[in-house]
Amino acid sequence: MVNFTVAIPTYNGENRLPLVLQRLRLQTNTENFSWEIIVVDNNSRDNTEKVVREYQASWPDTYPLRYCFETEQGAAFARQRAILEAKGEWIGFLDDDNLPALDWVATAYSFGKEHPKAGAYGGQIHGDFEVNPPENFERIQSFLAIRERGTQPHLYDPDNLSLPPAAAVVVRKQAWLKTVPSRPTLGGKAHGSMVQGDDYEPLLYMHKSGWEIWYNPTMHTYHQIPGWRLEKDYLLSLIRGSSLCICQLRMIKAKNWQKPIVATKILLGSLRRVVLHLFKYRGQVKTDLIAACEMEFHLNNFASPFYFLKTSILHWRKR
User: Fold this and answer.
1) Residues spanned by the domain of 282
2) 200 shares a domain with 153
3) Radius of gyration (Cα) for the chain, nearest Å?
4) Is the CB of residue 216 less than 8 Å from the CB of residue 107?
5) Any idea what the Cα angle at residue 222 is, between residues 176 and 48, rounded to 5°?
């Protein structure tokens, strides 16, 4: 029996995977439970498989390193494949650029045992920047999956889309299989699309079914952030994708009669925030990177009901 699975979805990760695997090889305090590692190759075009196979040749038998190939592009499909392949009761996802502390596996497994109502939980994700981030970057750092919510464990607030990112989230396999649809609505960044929300979607289904979503401060990971991810064009594109999915996410818990009300609230609330943001920053929106990113979020939050309507129509036509 395997108690804990570490799952690493990756796309063209040959240069990033070695650091993650080295950290996993050095994990401490794992002697009293059984665990494994799965690399889910999400249709890579580089030497990802070769890198994993080379590590497998000298990998310890006590915590196996497995490899599988998922052809359908998109992080959500890679995570779904990991759920099906995993043998562990708990599945800890790690992005291939997110390095775990040496006790990450042990603290992740321990927290799950102590919280029987937890369907998922995330820890602290710290930014490891190649170059210094711009001034006031903390206002938008959550878009890069940075989470530093203090030293006390507490429940997230899924009703307000306060949730841990998939970069280092742990899920209970049973909760996922019983509550999350086998076919995700939001597939993740693929085929040129930056629309996201694929990491929040399964957690919202778990919460809808009564599972708790927790913050575990003892789990630490370090997100590797190269300089190009702090450039304006990338950040605006990232934030656009993070906000266009807002309406779709909020519809997960809404009954049919509530959906027009939800969409109207999003439109009015985001329009109000756009006006207030313009009033507060005036001309700075064009010159201040952080203010521009915040405006991008508000504008695309406003646009999200229209995006939801468009995708719903396309889905209906394909049926």
Assistant:
1) 234-318
2) yes
3) 20
4) yes
5) 70
Same domain, 219 and 246: no
What span, in angstroms and rounded, lies between the C-alpha atoms of 38 and 64? 8
- My answer on whether 37 and 183 are in the same domain is yes
* Structure tokens belonging to residue 233: 């064009």
Asked whether 213 and 121 are in contact (CB, 8 A), the reply is: yes
DSSP 132: P
**What are the phi and psi torsion angles at 95 (to 5°)?**
-65, 155
How does pLDDT run across 121-167, given as a tens digit for each residue? 999 999 999 999 999 999 999 999 999 999 999 999 999 999 999 99
Does this model's pTM top 0.85? My answer is: yes
Q: Please give the Cα distance from 227 to 63 (Å, whole number).
A: 34
State the greatest distance between any 2 C-alpha atoms of the chain, in Å, as a whole number. 61
Rounded-to-integer distance, Cα 315 and Cα 319, Å: 7
Are 239 and 313 in a shared domain?
yes
Q: Are residues 223 and 241 in the same domain?
A: no
Q: How many CB atoms lie within 10 A of CB 65?
A: 22
Of 205, 230, 255, the position where a domain reaches its end is 230
311-313-315-317 Cα dihedral, nearest 10 degrees: -150
Q: Is 107 left (phi over 0), alpha (psi -120 to 50) or beta?
A: alpha
Report CA torsion sign: 193, 123, 249, 263: negative
Question: Would you tell me how many other CB atoms lie within 10 Å of the CB of residue 3?
Answer: 17
Per the structure, how many domains does the chain have? Answer: 2
pLDDT in tens, 178-227: 999 988 888 666 545 567 899 999 999 999 999 999 999 999 999 999 99
Neighbours of 228 (CB within 10 A): 10
